[in-house]
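#help-structures
NK: newbie question, is this the right format to request a structure? protein is Universal stress protein
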Amino acid sequence: MPKHILVAHDLSVEADVAVRRAAQLAAEHDARVSLLHVIEQPLGAPLLAKARQSAVAALQDSARSAGLTDYQPLVAEGRPASVIAATAQELQADLLVTGTHRQALVERFDGTTLEQILRCSRVPALLVTDSQLRPYRRALSALDFSVGACHAWRSACAWLAPGGELLALHAYDAGNDPARLRERLDEQRQLLEQLMHDESQQVGGPLPQLECLVSSMGVREALDHSLADWQPQLLVLGSRGRGALQQALLGSTARYYLRRPPCDLLVSA
């Protein structure tokens, strides 16, 4: 079961929303929370001490507003992506949570920063965009048999609220033979169901309601269609695919949705 949530906090209003989501998840799953702020600009000793004090005070205010009483405030210096990834590994965090504007393309915790973190960390990263903070009861997962996608799927199983639903979507190129389209899609569905069964054995605790869908559309087209049709609260992606070509494809898909999140987004390497 997940036990430790790390929130990367840039002292923005959006990061406060991420803290509130972390507090809600921690209460649901009896997990502890650490709040981390990284001072990026090099400062002299007097200014650094003042910056650290201000950051700790801001983290305490954010935690208080979120109703957090048991948490660990952390302040470090360096490059944010490197420090966040190293801290997540050191703390053995089960989830990294960040916040960002829904419409903004350039934020301190934008897609580029998260990609940098995911390149050197296997800790699933949750990008929070929804300020309503309803418990996660419906999630859509792009599942392509890759390690990252499977890791993200298992993480979604662990963090969904009790009684939640998780739809696994697999986009499959069935070729140009319409006579065999249904047969090939059925074969892929059987493989997907077996994969979900195998992966579910590694999830500690109760499972959400599991569903799967195999589509002959392209990855992004299938995801957009399912997002519109299913209206999930959480989109779940692996940051890379299986082979070189599919790594580039799914990597570009993850980057696309990190910059244009249609809902909260969970990404894992």
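mod (FA): yep, format's fine, and the tokens are attached above. The two ends are 19 Å apart (CA to CA).
NK: thank you!
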